[in-house]
Every structure is written in structure tokens, then in C-alpha cells.
Known about the structure:
Beta-Lactamase
Amino acid sequence: MIWTSGSDKLCDWFNRAWLEFTGRTMEQELGNGWAKGVHPDDISRCLSIYNTAFDNRKEFIMEYRLRRHDGVYRRILDIGGPYFSSDGEFCGYFGSCTDVTDATTGKDPVQSSQSEPAPLSSQTTLDEASDPSGPEVRAALDRVLASDVFQSSPQLAAFLRFIVEATLRGQSAQLKGYTIAVEALGRDEDFDPQQDPIVRVEAARLRRALQQYYGGPGATDLIAIDLPRGRYIPIFHYRRKVRALPAAPFALERSPVIGTVEGWLTLPRARFVLASLVALALIGGLALLMIGPSQEGTTFRQVATDQQLVGASWAGNGMPTIFVEPFSQLGEDPTSAITPGVLRSKLRDAIVRFDEFNVISEMTASVRQPVTTAEHLPATKYQLGGTVENRSDGETILNFWLLDAFDGAVVWSRTFEVHDLKAPGAQEDAILSDVAVVLAGPSGIIHAHARKKPNIDPRYACLLRAYDYLYGFDPRVHDDVLACLERMTKLDPTFANGFSALSMVYYREHSTEIGVLPGDSPPVDRALKAAQRAVALKPQSARAHEALLLSYFAQGALSEALAEGDIALLLNPLDRSVPALYGMILAASGQLEKGEALLKQVSTGSSLSPTWVSAYLSVVSYLKGDLAAASTYANLDVSDAYPLGIVARALVAAQGRNQDQARRFIDQLVRVSPVFRENPRRGLETFIRSPEILDRLVHDLGALGLGPGTSSAAH
């Protein structure tokens, strides 16, 4: 059984033998779907082994129990390894699986699901010579910790022992900043790694201490423990230069998983494993021939530099950090219904709904020190503060300001007056919603200010370019935005916001055919995969569910699309892009009234370019017979390259008996999207899903000379 995964760790192909074994479809197994068949007692260890090997670009061999199509769990031997393009770019993993139940248990091949193979508990990582075993690593660890370097620093010793033991137990996936701080460094359970950099600081000290040890008292040690930069998962390896004897081709640690040398690793089985590895190498070689050179046209050195750049960036995927300061109470009446503490709390909760920001409540260190080295990018940090001022005339004045924490400059400020103190809650909530949207919306103050900075995180810079493209419509920047997002999501597979934006760009390809090249996989498939990845990384992200909403719509799965719209609205009703996209889908599926209401809600604001919103509002008004409104929306900042906007203008012009203008719009439409010449239904189907609406628009476009058997100026 053969499987492959991409550079994002997600499986992207299984051969027929795998699918026949599991009895599931390719769609069900893609991504992390295959893991549903792994025995519940094995899944955590299985994923830990895979993730550890993947992060270190190492081969691996492991066993786990996999549910067969008849419900019986079978013991599977899984051997996997990385493969690279011809110019050295990492492309993903290939794996080979074999059912070894009978060979390892001696039981009848047909077992009941209650008579399962014994639990599995260990991992073996392969190299030219095998990596050190668990006992060897623990012995090496004891030598390191006994040295003067670590005896003088109990905190570093605790840090090192914790991460080594967790990795040996197959629990490396748990090695996060919070876990290390609480369980190894003694921090309280309310520790926040966003606020307290202690783990990053101690990790840097630990790397230096290990370098000092292996350069001095540990210079002749056979086994080395390393902590790669930017990670908390250690790696263990033989120090080849001082090793006296070559390693055996296969040296598996004795354990309940593999068994004893006399048990599992008999000579026939060793030959089987080696033969499997040879087959895997052949498969990898064939894959290289099929994949060919990298499409990005960058060298491996350039990619490595970008990886170092991203790895050195601040936490939070490089997104801006907002410190919401305690608000002050001014004036003589401290008993106002609007209190500083509640105001601050509500504002913080409103802004945190926007995916692109890290919101904190405490400043832990100065952020005003200039950064001079490229490997330490300054975080984009802001301080948001305010006051509640009670006047003698009974009015309450709310003042807000935003400072750039790097240089203390005032980025934005605003004052609101609250007159009706009998019901301050509604006014207070409306004001805070306005502040959150103005600051954190897609076209908000913070994004606009960050665009002027020369050294923001490359992921954030890429995201800003994508938003400019997605909320406007300039086909000339499509390829640049797409290349940037694809590059950043490869460099940082945890970049959830990047996957969301990438999915929307793929949807743009689908709806307009801009950027689609011969031989490309269907944009709708790429959009769905990227959206699913975004949701998996960040289930609470409204932006990720927006992307999934669009992807399902493009696939024709309207009920699923509408369900995602409901989720996105629930997660962030303040973000104008959420009702914009949801309103678009509702209108396109025939729910004109509900869709129009959401679209109008967006069009009255200033946080979103109305290009495509206006196009849909024009079509809705046209279908309802309101030609005045249709004309207004059709001419409201509609791009000359957006097909649906041009359709709206042509239909409005024709209804206004301006046939010459209508023909000019038809000519323009055919130039932008040639499919409309002979098949306007196909051209409209990417924007409209309701059969009734399609019939109406196709009929009206036919009257303007589009479609089979018609003639127009476009011919």
C-alpha cells in the first residue's frame, strides 16, 4: 500500500491497494482523513512519529493498527521517507505499508475486532547508519547533565531532560512553549507564551550550553543531542567523526513494538525491510522524474534563507500584536454606567475576533529597541488605550487612541459622546464595534499603517498584498499574490491565515479564469484543499470558514456553503468581509432578500472595497425590477475586468434603452471572458448557482447577442 504527502504534512494520494484495504474513497483519506482508521490507542504515537520524522526530514519505520474494510484491526508496518526536487527543494513524503499481522502475532488472519494486535509503543528512525537507541540517548543525556556546564544551571538541565524524555516517549508533538514553561520551568498554569518569552530565551541559552559542552568536555562523546534553531524538539545522532566502528545497517531498539532481535528482527524480516526501503527509493526516484524542476524558479539556498527569515520572526505567525492598555477614569462621577474595566474587556474581545491579530493584556518587555539584524524582525506591535470621561452635564466622553509601540507615534485617535446614560450598553457596544472594525478590518487602520513599514514579517506582508487583491480587482497582480502565498505557506505550514487567503485566490482563478495555466489542477480542488487546511489549523477562524464557504460554493455544495457562512458569522459578525461573502452566496443561490440585506450592510461601510459587492447588489436589484438601484450599484466602482460587474452594466444599459452602451459592455465582456461569447451560462455559473436566476440572465444576455446561434458586435 503506497501513500504520499505534500510539504504541508497532509496526505495527497493513496494507491488502489490502500483504498481497497480500508474500503474508503480517496476523498475520505486525503489530508488527515486516513488517521480515522488508525486504532485510537495508537493514533497519538503514530502522528508523533510521523511529525517528528517530517520536521527533521528523516526516514521512519513504525507499526500501528489500521482498521480494514471489514472492521478488523490489522498490524501495519509503515516505512516512509522524504523526497526532493532536482534542485533540492523538499516536496513531501512517500510511504510504503504492509500488513504484517500474521508474521508478528501468529494468529489467524481473520481476527475479530476485539482480538486486536497488542498496543504499539516505539519508533525507529533510519539513516545511512541507524540513529541512537533510547538507552544510548539516555546515557548520553546523563553525561551531559553531569558536566559543569549543566550542573551550574539546574533550569537548563530541567529543560533539556524534559524535552529529551518527551521525544523518546514519542510525545514530541506536546513540546510547545506553554508545556515546557509549566512542566519543566515551573511556571504557573496561567502562563502565556505570547507575553512571557522565557521559553525562547532558555532555548537559546540551551543551544549555547550544548555547543559549549560538545566543544569542551563532550568533545569525544559518541552521541550528540542537538536542539535545532526555532524548534523545541531535540535530535539525536552519532558523531561520525569520532565513531570507531560502523553502525549495523539496521539496529532497532528492543521494544514491545518491534519485539526482540530474536523475535521480530530475524534475518528474513531484516531483508524484507531493506527490500521495502529499496522499493521506496525507486518510487522516490520515479517521483522526481515525474515532478521535474521546481516551478518557483528559486534555488535551494534562497528557500533556506526564507525559512530562516520566517523561523526568526516573532510568535503568532508574524501577525501584529495589540496590547490593550487599562483604560482610565476621568471626571468627577466615578459611578458612570460605563466603566473602564468593562470597556477595555469588551474592546479586547471584539478585536480578538479578527484572525490577523494577537491581542495581549500585559506588556512584558520593551518593544521600542531598534532592531538591526535581519534575523530578528521587529514585531508589528501597537498599544491601544482610552479613557472614560464623565462631564457635569451628564454626558460621558469615550476617548480612544492607537500608538505604534515601536516608536510611540500616534497612529489613530477618536472621541465618542454617549448621551443616553439610561441605556448605555447598546451605545457602548455599537461604539466598540465601530472601533474594532476601523482598526482591525481588512482595510482598517492597522493594516494600512503596517503597509508603510519596510520590515514587517514576510507572511504578514504577503497577506496584506492578498487582501488588496481580493477586496479589489486588479488581474495584473494575481500571479504575484499567488506566488507569494504559495511560497509562504510552504515555508510555514502552520500559516493558517495564508492558507485561507490562498484558497480565496484559487477561487478567484475559478471564477474568472485569471492565472489558470494549461496542465494546472482544477482551481476549485486547490481552493478546497487550502481551505480545509486553514480550518484544521485554526478551527475558530472566521476567515478560514469564509474560505471554506467559497470553496463549497464553487463545488456546487450549497448546503455546506451556507452552513459555513453561518459559522463564519457566528465567529466574527464584525468583520465586513464575512457578511459580504455570505450575502454573495445567498444571492447567488436564489435567496435574494437575505443576501441583499447582508450586502447592503457591507456597502454602507468603508472597510471593504465595493467592487464585487456592488456587482451582486446590481444584479439583485435588476432581478427585482429596481432599475434605478441596479444602475447606481452597477456604476459604483465596478472594475472593468470583473465579468459579473460588466454583465450588470450591460443589462442595465439595455433596460435603459441605451443599446450602443450595452453593446460596448458586451464587447468588453467577451474580451475579458471569451466563454460568454458562445456559452454565457457557463460564464455565469461561477457567479450564480440558482437555475432560475441563470435562466433569466442567460435569456437577457441572449437578447444582447450572446450565446449559440446569436450574433453581436463582439463577433
